Amino acid sequence: MTEATSPTSAPDALADVLADAPFVRLVATDDGDAVAAAGLLARALRAVDTPFQVRVSRDPVPDAGDDAVAVTVGAARGPHAIPGSGRPASADAFATARALGADPDPVVALAGVVAAGSVPGTDGSGDALKAAERSDRVRRRPGVALPVADAADGLAASTLVRTPYSGDPEAAAAALAELGLPADRDDDAHRRLASLVAVDVADADGANARAASAVERALRPYETTGNAAPFETVGGYADVLDALARGAPGTGVSLALAADPSDGLRTAALDAWRTHGRAAHRALDAATTGRYDGCFVARVDLGDGAADTEGGTAARDAAAVLPTIARLARDFRSPEPVAIALDEAAGRLAVAGTGSGRAADDAGTEPTGLGDACRSAAGEAGGDGWGTADRGGIVVGDGEATDGDITSALAALREAL
Fold first, then answer.
1. Do 342 and 300 contact (CB within 8 A), yes or no?
2. Cα angle: 57, vertex 317, 216; to 5 degrees
3. Phi/psi of residue 30, nearest 5 degrees
4. Which GO terms describe its molecular function (predicted)?
5. pLDDT tens digits for 289-333?
6. By three-state DSSP, how is residue 303 classified?
7. Is residue 159 part of a domain?
8. Closest residue by Cα to residue 393 from 315, 277, 310
9. How far is Cα 363 from Cα 86, in angstroms, rounded to an integer?
């Protein structure tokens, strides 16, 4: 199945459809922007007493059934979709919720915008930012976008940055100790923290040319205010949503749906985020890497492949963490426009691209359709492929015996790129 073959709905038109729907099924791609957008739509449906269902899928296919209306979030599929291409899905979901007569949470919308790689106030998110600022829900300040007040804890797990101490709370604490920051950080202390992180990202061993610009989305964050804000910053919220979308999608949907998240939900979300972020960084630390024409490959081992015979942790960990490893490699390590994270034991790979199918210093190139490239390569290797224009994945086996293998899929994918 290819992308961008189905009609999509403008916010007002989609709101008209949803207003008359007896039941709505929302299916979102497994990323923070789509989960935030689905949460905004679900809250709006709840506000107008329309029954709904939300699920997250790596390769969403709309299934209305009976008289229900199906909406795909994060992919251009089906008659009703918020594709998330061109601008974040959360920005369109915020507008759709308003058109339904609801009062959508602007902080959730802005978290989705950051998760999409955008900046609050741009790419159609201006109304959400204005709403958040008018209600004193956010304020911009110096510093780093983390979900928690403990900077060492936050930096060790954050996937918005890649530093020498990423994945290691003790090393992060040691680096921060040298700054002598006060317990209650003022703007000057936040500024010193941001300077440390920016320098450490750009100067890290193996840092690519993109690292210095990639770290910018984690700097000068929007701090959240008020009792209903579950995390310290909008960017930190985005980081948590992105981790949950892959590793704990049920928790991610619950978080995006909750107007006032409970302490238990917040704790569960942060625990999943820590586990996910640290695992991604540690795997990339231990990866064997190789550079090829147009792509960078990081070979990792996220667990004992034998556990997969029981549907165990290795396959689940690889499915959740590999996309994050690929994105980290693309943003902070890969000298090529495409980064691939490969776990041979789990029979999986994930790929992330910059939107260009050629070297990073080439200009004016057409975007690589990574999802379609993964589908094609998986077909040649006897596996399953999925994805969107700038990210994708392949699994060979997936708990069943096949004649293919993931290294053959990698070779086919490199050829497709």
1. yes
2. 80
3. -85, 65
4. exonuclease activity
5. 999 999 999 999 997 443 343 344 566 788 999 999 999 999 999
6. coil
7. yes
8. 315
9. 19
What pLDDT, on the 0 to 100 scale, is given for residue 398?
64
Residues near 17 by Cβ (< 8 Å), separated by ≥ 6? 9, 69, 80
Residues sharing a CB contact under 8 Å with residue 338, sequence separation 6 or more, in sequence order? 294, 295, 296, 330, 351, 352, 353, 354, 357, 368, 370, 417
Alpha carbons within 13 angstroms on the beta-carbon side of residue 109 total: 34
Tell me the three state secondary structure of residue 71: strand
Q: Kindly state the DSSP code that residue 233 receives in the 8-state scheme.
A: B
What are 182-203's pLDDT values in tens digits?
A: 888 999 999 999 999 999 999 9
- Environment class of residue 236 by beta-carbon count within 10 Å: exposed (0-12), middle (13-18) or buried (19+)? buried
CA distance 174 to 165: 9
Q: What is the value of pTM for the model shown?
A: 0.92
Residues contacting 259, CB < 8 A, separation 6+: 43, 105, 228
CA–CA distance from 404 to each of 10, 190, 303, 399 (Å)?
42, 51, 21, 13
Name the average pLDDT for the chain.
90
What is the C-alpha to C-alpha distance for residues 391 and 380, in angstroms, rounded to an integer?
A: 19
Question: Tokens representing 333?
Answer: 């390590």
What is the residue range of 346's domain? 286-416
The backbone torsions φ and ψ at residue 343, rounded to the nearest 5 degrees and listed phi first, read -120, 100
**Which of these, 163, 142, 160, lies nearest to 217 by C-alpha position?**
160
Residues 88 and 206 reside in one and the same domain? no
Q: Domain holding 17: CATH number? A: 3.90.1640.30
- Domain's final residue, options 281, 306, 332: 281
Amino acid at 331: D
What is the reported pLDDT for 65? 73
How many helices (DSSP H) and strands (DSSP E) are in the chain? 15, 12
Beta strands in 58-153 (DSSP E): 69-73, 81-82, 138-140
The per-residue pLDDT for range 236-261, each reduced to its tens digit, is 999 999 999 999 999 999 999 998 99
Gap between the Cα atoms of 87 and 118, Å rounded: 8
Q: Are strands 295-299 and 288-292 parallel, antiparallel or unpaired?
A: antiparallel
